[in-house]
Task: structure prediction
Amino acid sequence: MTVLADPALAADARRERRFFLSLSLPALFIVGLAAILPILWIIRQSFLTTGGDYTVGNYEKVLSSGLTWAALVTTVELSFGTLAFCILLGTPLALALASVRPRVANLLMAFVMLPLWTSILVRTYGWLVLLRREGLINTALTGSGLTAEPLPLVYNFTGTLIGMVHYMLPLFLLPVYAAMRDIDANLVRASASMGATLAQTIRTVILPLSTGGIFSGSLIVFIYTIGFFITPAVLGGGKVNPLSIRIERTLSTFQDWGSASVLGILLLVLMALIGMMFLVARRLMARNKFGTAHA
Amino acid sequence: MMKSLPITIDSVRKAYGSYVALDDVSLDIRAGEFLTLLGPSGSGKTTLLMALAGFVRPDRGKLLLGDRDITRLAPNKRDIGIVFQNYALFPHMNVLANVEYPLALRKTPKAEARRRALDALARVKLDGLAERDIAALSGGQRQRVALARAIVFEPRVMLMDEPLSALDKNLRETMQYEIRRLHDDLGITTIYVTHDQREALIMSDRVAVMNSGRIQQIDTPQQIYDRPSTRFVAEFMGEANIVGPGAARRIDGADASHETLMIRAESFHLDAKIVGRDGVALEGTLRAKAFRGENWLLTLALDGGQEILVCIPSALAGGCAELATGQRVTAYAPAAKVHPIPGAVA
Result:
């Protein structure tokens, strides 16, 4: 049985809801202006010839070019490579940060965050100083006799990957660290009291309870790396050409707005696909929960 | 019946900077005993429990399980079942997976692990909830899962850290009896931490009262309550009146004791005849009275200025309702309920 609500009180409730919704308007406005509109504009642009006539020629040209597909592969390789190293390096680091005393954790966190406060250009050229043939690392390696020849550390895929991992690691770390720090210390103790070694506790308790953070971190890594430009441009030495670089080249060398727009849309589609893949993976993992410590 | 072991705590000390959490604590717990560590927060009881569990490393001293020195043994090798204050159930596992967890770690065959986990759940009356998610359980049910998980691997010692403090009063009382029943069924040596003196009295074989990192007194609940050895224990265990020498007079006119006396509020009667001639009498002015359901609580100001609490059961308190503040009242206590506290000053 429902009781009729007092209309004045119901109106108050509605007004309150409307007020809170209205707080999102400025942000919605900016997103519309700065993101949705340009995307619509790019979509329109991709169907125009340089003369301004409608065409699907841009798509034919771009999609039939081997360079496009090579760039797509490079983009995916760079993103997944960066992600792999972020997970391998960042997860243990987050675990370490979450395990030490808060004061020490804050100090270490400051070191992790320091690179974020430095301009990406400065950092990228910094890597150049370290990694090039006559750079610090190669000088040390050849000088100490560890290697006879300098290693090809830069102006290639390796150098680009190093630069990108360095850039992304703090951003990956933050959500993973937050997730791990939120795990009740008593869960870890309980696990140990029941006989689990530290490795078993990490595998059966800490990692399953951090998957949310690891997923968020991975998504951040993808969103950033898929359109990364400066690092491949500086450290790739012209040999590492992801979609972002192809777009820039198409524009600066050929002023071909139509083709550049198609490449931009390709990037957008790639992001959407990977995003969907993440959602599905997340859903699947949630469904078959890490049932037991068996297996 | 599981094989249970005695525990020996030998001069264990733990300091955090200048704060001494455990001040050379020694304690022997018998095999199969239910011992409660009772004390206010900061008294060191949880630190002592965590030292036994292996999560706090003592500065010095020894911990023995049976005759095995476990002082430096890793927590996961101690074979001790622990029930944590907030239950510490794994939220990403269902009830059954939580209870099977310690068995899975021991590589128990799956079918046997399943059977034993279901047995443990039946013991704590959770049959039928095995497939539930932890989030779907009530506080009392979570408590039971935590118990089942702690007993399923048949540890030889159980530690419980204020396991009932998050439950409401009625449920807490039910669980007190069930935990005690479980202990009696399994005969497992149990150390139970609480700050609730009633809980300690109800559940324990012996109670160790702690304060400032030391054990003040260790004895049976009745001895601790009736014969506290220090003023702190007397006051922590209930409504205690500590009266100085001379404040109480003997009903028969004999010389009153020259010691400081402890008389519990509920030991008093308003009728001298019930008490007997060797009892004591305290006379004062009624300051306040409160009806508390099962009893009346009277506050008397003695002539020396000290206030005492007098608790009269409602069933015997015929005249209490008519008493007016400012009135002279004499409270009588039988000799058996008057306990001298050596060294204490009222």
